């Protein structure tokens, strides 16, 4: 009875993952056939532009950010810069000193502080909306380094009054810093190629990624403005805008360099916020999506998009139950027909997940052969890293669906060329609840047991699951703040 229950749960989870993979394959096909180079359009007129820079305790990168933004090539009289500073450390004093230098050069850059941090990033952006003068609003997080010609590359693509957003592709200034950053690059490259490019090409909704893009101010106002009732205010506003008929442009060939998290804790914090915020957006927007006048494909693809973070729940329980299902097969507790189903499902899902990430990564990179060779160890590291933080992500997703409110915890940025890593480890730390740590430790030991069980049965798949579980949770439990450099 219990064996049958575990088996049918496993099959159901695989069926859900199979549906998700099918949608991703459709997006992959659209991405492969999409134009990678956008048409070069000259900027015929120069509208008033506001650049918003939301920062919170970013002392290591705030000066670099101000330098980059103040060097953007655009008529000074038509550009204003708002540093939206909610900081409680020396970030503000560093920023003011740097801003004074550029203000003396005639650049309109303002230091804007609120009395409190109500609404976190969404609150800061909304506060600036009431005083900004720009017809268009560009937004950059603290770790981004926009190019000098960013505005001249992006503004021409507001070539229709219905275009509400132009989003650029993130690139990674520290991609080769360690195996952690290379693993993350594979995930983000796949997102910005298959998901963004595929969705754009297929006519599905895309989302503003919170940074490295430009909004038409009227679009924000028409959609109800920035709202702080989710941790992913960018995804929320994006869906509300597109459900109202606004269109988004994605520029695959325009890169916006940024910094990847370099510790497991920093990456976990970022992914937790994204995962919980996406679940909150499901609660808020899924009903409105299906009641909106958009097409069926947009509703299906949009639903999968919103439910993206829920994949962590499926993956976590699949990883935990698959070794048990394999063991039941070895002990003849599963019929031969079901054993065949296990074999085909495992092989199919493993192959297609790998193909999706492999193709998504190669679409982005320039050196295809080198990237193809290095993909395999880095992808394995990504799988282990994802499994290692999966339990924490499951908690975030469940909290998001349950409506549990939590603080917006920003991802720490380091500027490693300038900052001593020993200092960073002391200053950026995250507290984990003891009961969560104990459960993660238990899962780590479970992974070790699965390895030994796989070795006993000479079952490669079972051993592989054990290695991924053990490696991932070893990183999460024992090396959360360690800065790897290989």
TrEMBL record:
Gene3D superfamilies: Spore Coat Polysaccharide Biosynthesis Protein SpsA, Chain A
Presence of the UniProt keyword Transmembrane in the record: yes
Transmembrane feature ranges: 7-32, 306-329, 341-364, 379-402, 438-458, 464-484
Localization of this protein: Golgi apparatus membrane
CDD domains given in the database record: CESA_CaSu_A2 (cd06437)
Span of the signal peptide: none
Stretches assigned to coiled coil: none
Keyword Glycosyltransferase: yes
Bilayer topology annotation: Multi-pass membrane protein
Alphabetized GO MF terms: glycosyltransferase activity
Protein origin, superkingdom: Bacteria
A GO biological process held by the record: cell wall organization
Cited InterPro entries: Nucleotide-diphossugar_trans (IPR029044)
The name this protein goes by in its record: Glycosyltransferase
Lineage of producing organism: Bacteria, Pseudomonadati, Bacteroidota, Flavobacteriia, Flavobacteriales
């Amino acid at each position: 009875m219990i064996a049958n229950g575990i088996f049918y749960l496993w099959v159901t989870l695989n069926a859900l993952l199979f549906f998700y993979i099918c949608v991703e394959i459709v997006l992959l096909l659209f991405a492969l056939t999409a134009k990678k180079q956008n048409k070069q359009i000259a900027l015929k007129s120069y509208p008033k532009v506001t650049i918003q820079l939301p920062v919170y305790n970013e002392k290591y990168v705030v000066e670099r950010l101000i330098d980059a933004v103040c060097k953007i090539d655009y008529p000074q009289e038509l550009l204003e810069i708002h540093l939206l500073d909610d900081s409680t450390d020396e970030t503000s004093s560093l920023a003011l000193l740097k801003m004074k230098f550029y203000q003396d050069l005639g650049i309109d850059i303002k230091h804007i502080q609120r009395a409190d941090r109500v609404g976190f990033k969404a609150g800061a952006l909304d506060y600036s909306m009431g005083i900004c003068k720009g017809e268009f609003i560009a937004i950059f997080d603290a770790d981004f380094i926009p190019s000098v010609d960013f505005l001249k590359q992006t503004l021409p693509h507001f070539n229709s009054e219905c275009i509400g957003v132009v989003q650029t592709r993130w690139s990674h200034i520290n991609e080769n810093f360690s195996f952690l950053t290379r693993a993350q690059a594979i995930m983000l490259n796949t997102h910005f190629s298959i998901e963004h490019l595929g969705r754009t090409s297929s006519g599905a909704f895309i989302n503003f990624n919170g940074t490295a893009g430009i909004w038409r101010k009227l679009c924000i106002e028409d959609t109800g403005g920035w709202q702080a009732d989710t941790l992913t205010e960018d995804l929320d506003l994006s869906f509300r805008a597109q459900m109202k008929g606004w269109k988004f442009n994605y520029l695959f060939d325009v890169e916006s360099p940024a910094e990847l998290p370099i510790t497991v804790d920093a990456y976990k914090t970022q992914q937790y916020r994204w995962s919980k915020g996406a679940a909150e957006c499901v609660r808020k927007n899924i009903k409105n999506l299906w009641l909106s006048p958009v097409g069926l494909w947009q509703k299906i693809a949009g639903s999968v998009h919103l439910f993206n973070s829920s994949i962590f729940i499926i993956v976590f329980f699949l990883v935990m139950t698959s070794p048990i299902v394999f063991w039941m097969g070895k002990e003849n507790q599963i019929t031969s027909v079901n054993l065949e189903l296990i074999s085909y499902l495992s092989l199919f899902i493993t192959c297609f997940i790998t193909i999706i990430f492999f193709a998504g990564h190669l679409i982005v990179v320039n050196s295809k052969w080198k990237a193809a060779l290095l993909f395999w160890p880095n992808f394995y590291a990504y799988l282990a890293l994802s499994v290692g933080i999966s339990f924490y992500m499951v908690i975030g997703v469940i909290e998001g669906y349950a409506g549990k409110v939590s603080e917006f915890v920003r991802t720490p940025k380091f500027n490693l060329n300038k900052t001593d890593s020993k200092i960073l480890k002391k200053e950026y730390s995250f507290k984990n609840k003891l009961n969560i740590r104990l459960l993660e430790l238990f899962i780590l030991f479970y992974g070790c047991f699965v390895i030994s069980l796989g070795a006993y049965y000479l079952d490669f798949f079972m051993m592989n699951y054990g290695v991924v579980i053990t490696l991932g949770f070893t990183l999460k439990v024992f090396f959360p703040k360690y800065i790897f450099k290989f």
